[in-house]
Amino acid sequence: MNSKSKYLISVVGPTAIGKTALSIKLAQHFNTEIISADSRQFFKEMSIGTAAPTPEERAAAPHHFIQHKSIQENYNVGAFEKDTLTCLAVLFKKHDVVVMVGGSGLYVDAAVKGLDYFPEVDPKIREGLNNELESKGLEYLQNQLKDLDPKSYDTIAIDNPHRVIRALEICIGTEKPYASFLNKGKEKRHFKTITVGLKADREIIYNRINQRVDIMIEQGLLDEVKRLKPYQDLNALNTVGYKEIFNYLNGEWTLDFAISEIKKNSRRFAKRQLTWFKRNENTLWFDYEEKLATITAALEKEIRS
């Protein structure tokens, strides 16, 4: 191993695929520690519904950023990026390799690449653009963006009104193209990242999700959510597995329907995760049942190269 190089092994993939188990095996193989990039597992009040690592799993390898915050604290992706870089600086003094695991794509990207930072603009601009969307339609806004920032017009999800309005409000508020703010001012990473992705046929992923939800119910998800009912309006709890049970507790749904909705929304979430992670062309993808030795051999080869 090049003595100057430090490596972050980022384990990604859809929910319920087996990322936690693999990350622990990799941490043990490389005799290192794990950083969690799962934005739902940060909160100590949410264990069952987030499938947070068990005490036994956490004892098998040192973990960071698991249940270190309260749902009543404001914690966002910007703070996570800063905290992760600070943590990695310490860990890389002891280890040449650190493992990161999590299915929150934005948080993974924040750690690996950094976030784009945009200046604050007058909120009235967005208000005006929303009014124009209502009165003149999306095409009018798209043409406006084409005039102000052709590069963004060609690259953003142009059929998504939120994306178009976001780009336009920056163009109008700063009098500079939205594209000019992308990939600027990101703190250079002093480590190399190797991304390992776990995959399976969609039917297998969906079956694993359904089984996991049933296990969560058996483990006491209902009681966990009941305890959190006084805080149901907090942003941290506006998430799959919690919001559906709140609907049941509020008398809007039956329990069976709430459980079926958790399964459905988890499947949708997995689909979005896969779309996000497949954008990274350098990911080393492995079947979820692949032998550990095959994965570690591929990683050792990357590290040596």
Automatic annotation (TrEMBL):
Keywords: Transferase
Enzyme class: transferase
EC number: 2.5.1.75
This protein's name: tRNA (Adenosine(37)-N6)-dimethylallyltransferase MiaA
Native species: Pseudotamlana agarivorans
Encoding gene per record: miaA
